[in-house]
């Protein structure tokens, strides 16, 4: 029994493991062959391989030091200071968990939500406005700001759901368009009198009030805040919703087969609209947590690529709440580490995107991984699918 | 049958109501509630073409009223057509034109609008969109969803810029670009056809991959070694004799770089090939009903693979437009989402070549109108103008324009003896 489940577990992580191996190997190759110092030694194969190995090794070491633990940071400080990178990883991962859950939940209902970016923006706008405009007591202010963010984004996401439910327009196109509209909307709103910080002409909103900021968890030296618990709570909520409630069952039924669900008496338009609203609220909460937890002020680039990375996060997490949390932590680590890698070894941060894309590509193509490693059979649960334009 | 008919009528009714309402609103708002107080000047001369009319000056209020009236009359024709259960597209087009012109006349009160330049700029902004949507068209007509247009454009823009910089020759840039586009297509085709990966997810991942790679190489090579890696020369304009002298049309259509002429040729070829050749018939067959195509002896997956590769070549030429076709140097993420707009143009254009070109031109026009109005200093926030193409797309895909239906087997991997 024990051996059986162990081997099952081994099978289960074989595919992700091999995908990671493949992705990091390819990334390493790219880092090596784009390095001028390595290329200079191309005439002697031994030196070439040695310097290539050194370049890749240094880059990956910096990636680790920037995301988990850096012994250099402990000099002259306490040992704990060495974990500053881990705190950065978690701070980066927090919004990613929430946006990732937004995409993952949509997948469960058979929807491909590319709109987390726009929903994140509206969440950030809503939270920021309540955060700086009102004076509320401790605790209540955070709740109000986070709620405002989630609500704005739920409406923004709900529009997509409603349009799809009413007209059958495809959510991929709708959400892509809504992302653009949101990104111009934030540029505009930052120029308005309500949002422009007094005395500034560049697009930045006033800082949110002290009461609206998420409390720090490990003192002033670390940016880690209670946002991570909000994100984990949201993951728990999504898990509960999907597995323990009737609504969640309806979501999954429509996701599995909308025709059959309709025949069984489930209202597909209701599922689509409510899914998109909850997805919006989740991504919007991500925006709220990002503003209230680490940024404190709304700016034009507030969303970064949280909404887009969310898609790779959800895909890597196979649209499971727990998987999404781990995937977000991994990508958070890649981003945080990538910043250190860029500053200390000169390898541009953007390589992280390549790694991310490769991991997801290989995870989505189990037959390809099997083909590369000449494996006969690889246990893998059915890979994620979206629905074509007519779906 | 009657149900299909009534569905069409329902959509027409929606279209007619919206366009009539907009026409009346435009007449009321631009013509009477807040009329322009000054004169609007339209300029019609750009280069050294023959001159019929150099400028046209009209009081903004009068102009807006006239154009709105045109759109109201066109709306009446649309209502008539609807009641006769006929096509409403022509009167709706006229009405849209009237509303647009009314808006421009109103917005540019007291200003000078370079009309020819506005249209020329629109065409230029539409060039990569047209190439991108043609790439999407060929893929999707064969049953493969192509979300990776953005990646194809960006990769080929990068490669053509680098190759042209290294060789100091524009032509090598133009030759290398389609190869880069085809390389992305190769990944799309291999993973979607051979390994049956979900095409929407795959396309998305390929975009991320290309954005990551080009950003990485841009910072690693193009910025530090700019002199060797990122100084691509550009194609000059070729004036076609006589035609380039035509008023208005000349500078817009016949005084362009070779990439733009290639675009005309490619659009014409695709339109012809898709509907008049054996290849076109087979392509449409594998996109609509691959099983039927298979039974008559068409190798579905082989043709799909081939077509996806062709699509990559076409998108590649569009990518070259960004570098050797216009500004020369490559810029980080310089395609800025054009691939997604191209995709929208394809859907807006109902998966037909000319429809997609028309939609791309419309997006180009909206984009250029926005920058023109910003330059001449109109008091509408430019951000709202920038939203217009995206809002228009949403209106289009939610069924206002008519029935939008993708090829039936679009996005469905084909396996012999499978469910499809």
Description:
Chain B: Keywords: Cell membrane, Membrane, Transmembrane, Transmembrane helix. Chain B: One of its GO terms (molecular function) is transmembrane transporter activity. Chain B: InterPro entries: ABC_transp_permease. Chain B: It is found in: Cell membrane. The complex is a heterodimer of chains A (391) and B (420). With 391 residues, chain A is mainly α. Chain A has a domain at 87-336: Orthogonal Bundle (ABC transporter involved in vitamin B12 uptake, BtuC), CATH 1.10.3470. Chain A has 15 helices and two strands. Chain A has helices at residues 2-33, 36-40, 45-65, 84-108, 116-133, 140-167, 171-189, 227-244, 246-256, 258-263, 268-295, 306-316, 321-345, 351-364, 366-372; strands spanning 204-207, 297-299. A two-stranded antiparallel ribbon of chain A has the order 1-2. The radius of gyration of chain A is 22 Å and the shape is globular. Chain B is mostly helical and 420 residues long. Chain B has two domains: 2-110, no CATH class; 119-400, ABC transporter involved in vitamin B12 uptake, BtuC (Orthogonal Bundle), CATH 1.10.3470. Chain B has helices spanning 2-33, 60-83, 89-107, 115-141, 149-167, 170-194, 199-222, 226-229, 249-253, 258-276, 278-288, 290-295, 300-327, 338-348, 353-375, 382-400, and strands at residues 39-43, 55-59, 112-114, 238-239, 255-256. In chain B, helix 6 (170-194) packs antiparallel against helix 7 (199-222). Chain B is globular and about 60 Å long. At the A-B interface, helix 6, helix 7, helix 12, helix 14 and helix 15 of A face helix 7, helix 14 and helix 16 of B.
